[in-house]
From TrEMBL:
It holds the Pfam family BolA. Gene3D superfamilies: BolA-like. This is Cell division protein BolA. It comes from the Bacteria. GO terms for biological process: cell division. The keyword Methyltransferase does not apply. Belongs to the BolA/IbaG family. Keywords: Cell cycle, Cell division. Coiled coil: none annotated. It comes from SAR86 cluster bacterium.
Length: 78
């Protein structure tokens, strides 16, 4: 699995979000910006992503994921 495949998986589920995936060899940095995260704490935000990627994590195709997950307002403030 490569970064573009992970991007496609996330784009399909998070249609209103800006998704960027970097990395390779099973280790990825996932950045998602979207209002889908409004009102969610960090754990709930991560669970949203893990739910989409879980099958590939359990198969070993994805070994490690570092996430940066924020709303559009949070992105503009940083």
């Amino acid at each position: 699995m490569d970064a573009s495949q992970i991007t496609s998986l996330l784009d399909a589920e998070l249609t209103e979000c800006q998704v960027t995936v970097d990395g390779g060899d099973g280790k990825y940095l996932v950045t998602v910006i979207g209002d889908v995260f409004e009102g969610l704490n960090a754990v709930k935000r991560q669970q949203t992503i893990y739910k989409i990627l879980n099958e590939h994590i359990t198969s070993g195709a994805i070994h490690a994921v570092t996430m940066s997950l924020m709303t559009a307002n949070e992105s503009q403030a940083s």
